[in-house]
Write a structure and sequence with these properties.
- The structure is a homodimer.
- By secondary structure, chain A is α/β, with parallel strands linked by helices.
- Chain A folds into 2 domains: 144 residues, Rossmann fold, CATH 3.40.50.1860; 112 residues, Rossmann fold (3-Layer(aba) Sandwich), CATH 3.40.50.1860.
- Chain A has 11 helices and 10 strands.
- In chain A, the strands form 2 sheets. In chain A, strands 4-3-1-2-9-10 form a 6-stranded parallel beta sheet, sandwiched between helices. In chain A, strands 6-5-7-8 form a 4-stranded parallel beta sheet, sandwiched between helices.
- In chain A, helix 1 packs across helix 10.
- At the A-B interface, helix 2, helix 7 and helix 8 of A face helix 2, helix 7 and helix 8 of B.
Chain lengths: 271, 271
């Protein structure tokens, strides 16, 4: 299908907002030679409380924007979009598309020793049941416990990474899952790695926290290697960031998050 | 300008989501004979963290949808849209358009005795400074203290109206404003009336809570009366609810909120 050499083309990554930058960070680390076009849907964030139909429509629109930038593959860095839209996107578009659910599920299934895995995510992701199904497909002896945590995203966006109230909210949400004696907890939303400190404290350090960003980066590398799409030409390449709301605030937060290097932030207006 | 008799036409009301139903409730009470077309932008909620430019674009699109339903006036029930888009909408559209800021400011200025008013709202509403300017225009002796409370909307949407954590979050946000010895607090977001119990408890019952919904309904009545646009024909008239995301969840929540009577909920998809 790939008639031309697309290896010089960028990797497309999208998320409902900022959260997907955790994936960009890992891609930078594992594939420092690749160029990324990132789309953050900041004018319509969050996705986690919206319907599947709406998430599919938004995701489809974003992939079309990324295709205009000639991406060679697409990473759906948002857990909600991965849960609800990935299958449709894969059917509709003719390029490799990866989500974050499978890599996260695979890692959790590999690290659990007592076969009890917890999943925390947005309401839509939990409702989709995708993580649980994928894990049980991998190993039917694993028991999965899911818990939606709708206040975690606003708490992260408020910057309360280590606030007393965040500890209490976490304590409240994780109470039941803690009783189940899980040894592995999937952070099923790209915002949650920012609460790792709180989550470790509440769950205890014996519980492994699985954040799929790293796994996703490794899987992207695998796909590009297999399809001979790894960028070979060395030399400078700047990522492009596209957002649907005002670019300045995104740029400020992205700079802080990625530690600099965010030069090109452009706004996309849906028509 | 009004050449035809538009009195039989409905009143258009819009909000980023469900919150504007507090205004619908008051309109039902004060103008039981009127028909309402309500638009809830549930596919793009919330507005309170987004840029002015985006809020203006969304508001303009919604007014166009309402005009297709031949509304005789528009009520911007969302505080963020009232703060950031009202002036533009008034310039662009040729029908009476009311926001919620002025009625709320007017009421607060009327009830304060010590001329110290607090305002709690979303980040965008506070940043716009609209409430404070309007109050000082009404009475330059009044001092205004504003506090953004970004976690209140998610707490309401989580249904934690009376949760211990909600008390703590409120205690945190209101600490400074409480020290200012205000006697009047404007609830500058349509979600906040659902936290009245918590807010009374945290602020003390001597502080008056001003919720603009009732004032807005009275102002709508005044405008319609002046322009001879009050509906005169008696008889059944069903409100129409339009939402941009999936209608069923909205219907369920709206039924609970308004105590029934929500029959027609339709979905609008932006093209």
């Amino acid at each position: 299908m790939q008639m031309n050499d697309c290896s010089e083309d960028p990797i497309g990554v999208f998320d409902s907002g900022l959260g997907g930058l955790t994936v960009v960070k890992e891609l930078n680390h594992h594939l420092p030679n690749e160029r990324i076009v990132y789309f953050g849907d900041t004018a319509r964030v969050p996705y986690g409380t919206k319907s599947g139909e709406t998430i599919i429509r938004y995701s489809r629109e974003i992939v079309r924007v990324l295709l205009k930038h000639k991406v060679k593959m697409v990473v759906v860095a948002c857990n909600t979009a991965s849960s609800l839209a990935l299958d449709v996107l894969k059917k509709e578009f003719d390029l490799p598309i990866l989500g974050v659910i499978e890599p996260g599920a695979r890692k959790a299934a590999a690290v659990t020793r007592n076969n009890k895995i917890g999943i925390i995510a947005t309401s839509s992701t939990v409702k989709s049941g995708k993580y649980a199904r994928k894990i049980v497909q991998l190993n039917k002896n694993i028991v999965v416990f899911s818990q939606p945590c709708p206040l975690f995203v606003p708490l992260v966006e408020e910057g309360w990474f280590d606030h007393a109230i965040t500890y209490q909210v976490a304590g409240h949400y994780l109470r039941d899952i803690k009783k189940k004696k899980i040894d592995t907890l999937i952070l099923g939303c790209t915002h949650y790695p920012l609460l790792k400190g709180v989550l470790h404290n509440v769950m205890g350090t014996q519980v492994q926290l699985v954040d799929s960003a790293q796994e996703v980066a490794l899987q992207v590398k695998e796909v590009l290697t297999k399809r001979r799409l790894l960028r070979t030409r060395l030399g400078p390449c700047q990522h492009l960031y596209i957002v649907s709301d005002e670019p300045q605030q995104f740029k400020r937060l992205a700079m802080r998050f990625l530690g600099g290097g965010v030069k090109h932030v452009r706004r996309h207006i849906y028509v």
